[in-house]
Write a structure and sequence with these properties.
Elements (H helix, E strand, L loop, with lengths): L1 H13 L5 E11 L8 E4 L8 E6 L3 E8 L5 E6 L2 E2 L3 E3 L2 E7 L12 E9 L5 E10 L10 E12 L4 E10 L2
Parallel strand pairs: 3-10
Antiparallel strand pairs: 1-4, 1-11, 2-3, 2-11, 4-8, 5-6, 5-9, 7-8, 9-10, 11-12
Length: 171
């Protein structure tokens, strides 16, 4: 992730290195039985990112966040929408309604920005490439069904930044 590399170089130059390395597992599911779960495909570097997340407009997705260390997820924003969170056995989950999202134009990709607030840490901003499809568009199913997205990051109370984002297929 070029942004993570830039942040790392900047922090090294300023001698302000975040102290804790974590990973956050993000499970993604459609809440509708009639809509597909998120998929992703590998694009190489054709569109600026190696992976494209595929979501359908007019759907609601449930995101479940599991930090690798004991950190409470206190707030999550996805695409400028603050998710209403519920906590259950250490997992934090919220839903994103894509009814107001527009289908992506042919041949284009967009950035989907997650801002994850962890207790006693600076907000973590992560951007992933996404393409939005209509509910009946078969292209939304091309590639692999998402098992989870893993965000690797370095955090502390003053600065947090991603060091990598990976998608793992559903098994």
């Amino acid at each position: 992730c070029w942004l993570g590399e830039f942040c790392l170089r900047t922090c090294q130059q300023l001698s302000v290195m975040p102290e804790e390395k974590i990973s956050i597992s993000v499970d993604m599911r459609s809440t509708s039985p009639h809509m597909p779960n998120p998929h992703y495909k590998e694009d190489g570097d054709r569109f600026g990112s190696k992976h494209t997340l595929k979501l359908c407009t007019g759907n609601t997705y449930r995101f479940t966040f599991r930090p690798s260390v004991q950190r409470e997820v206190t707030r999550v924003t996805v695409a400028d929408e603050v998710l209403t969170l519920d906590n259950n056995d250490g997992d934090t989950a919220g839903t994103l309604d894509t009814s107001n999202f527009q289908n992506s134009k042919s041949g284009s990709r967009e950035n989907l920005v997650f801002i994850i607030h962890l207790k006693d840490a600076a907000p973590l901003e992560v951007s992933t490439q996404v393409k939005f499809y209509g509910a009946r568009d078969k292209h939304a199913l091309y590639g692999h069904e998402v098992g989870r997205m893993t965000i690797n990051a370095t955090i502390d109370k003053n600065i947090s930044f991603p060091t990598g984002v990976n998608f793992l297929p559903k098994r």
